[in-house]
């Protein structure tokens, strides 16, 4: 099992990236939302991974934080739901929104996801409704709560560039350090940038 990759973002393609780790290039498939949080090609990146093994191929799926891969693994435990459908879910909807739809038995929201019909939605609700409370407790701050765009825009006003900011923001999300208050988050990102500059 490959738990994560830490290396250089070598390529960005339509539905996957190539990560270079110690001279080896790994093809990693991402959900659509993840592409919004990638650094520039050539920058360092840590990405969590799930390895799908079939008779015909090995395929790595990548996630920007542990909450996403935790939800992904819960979703593929549902009968009839495979990694590609689970990736569609993460592409279309925030993890916290998906969890609320399951707990509220909201089939209408679930059926807006490509590949999820009424039967699949009902099966997801039936099989996951008792499993998700622990996930929600373990992830009090999610992409749904943290407005990443507000942080980036505020930092860009101060003269920073998006490609410089995203690796730091992703790290802070992974460490569950960000809050719902944008001004607090901006101060935290500035602190991390200053520490990074001091360590150079």
Describe the structure.
With 200 residues, the protein is of the alpha+beta class. It is 46% helix and 19% strand. The chain is built from nine helices and five strands; from the N terminus they run βββββααααααααα. A five-stranded mixed beta barrel has the order 1-2-3-5-4. Helix 7 packs across helix 8 and helix 7 packs across helix 9. It is globular and about 55 Å long. 28% of the residues are buried. About 4% of the residues have low confidence.
In short:
This protein is about 45% helix and about 20% strand. It is built from 9 helices and 5 strands.
Task: Please give the order of strands in the largest beta sheet.
Answer: 1-2-3-5-4
The profile of the biggest β sheet is:
5 strands, mixed, barrel
SSE order, as H and E? EEEEEHHHHHHHHH
Could you tell me the number of beta strands?
A: 5
Low-pLDDT runs of 5+ residues are 136-144
Q: How many DSSP H or I helices?
A: 9
Q: C-alpha Rg, in Å?
A: 18 Å
The helix fraction, in percent, is 40-55%
**Percent range for β-strand residues:** 15-25%
Structural class call reads: alpha+beta
Distance between termini?
34 Å
Overall mean confidence score, pLDDT: 85
- The shape is globular
């Amino acid at each position: 099992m490959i738990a994560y990759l830490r290396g250089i973002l070598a390529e960005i393609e339509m539905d996957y990236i190539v990560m270079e780790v110690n001279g080896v290039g790994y093809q990693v498939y991402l959900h659509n939302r993840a592409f919004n949080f990638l650094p520039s090609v050539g920058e360092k990146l840590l990405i969590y991974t799930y390895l799908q093994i079939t008779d015909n191929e090995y395929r790595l799926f990548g996630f920007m934080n542990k909450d996403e891969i935790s939800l992904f693994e819960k979703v593929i435990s549902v009968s009839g739901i495979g990694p590609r459908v689970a990736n569609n879910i993460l592409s279309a909807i925030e993890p916290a929104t998906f969890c609320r739809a399951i707990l509220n038995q909201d089939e209408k929201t679930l059926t807006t996801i490509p590949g999820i019909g009424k039967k699949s939605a009902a099966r997801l609700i039936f099989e996951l409704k008792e499993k998700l409370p622990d996930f929600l407790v373990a992830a009090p701050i999610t992409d749904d709560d943290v407005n990443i765009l507000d942080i980036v825009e505020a930092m860009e006003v101060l003269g920073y560039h998006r490609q410089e900011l995203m690796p730091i923001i992703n790290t802070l999300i992974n460490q569950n350090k960000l809050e719902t208050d944008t001004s607090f988050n901006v101060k935290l990102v500035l602190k991390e940038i200053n520490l990074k500059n001091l360590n150079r």
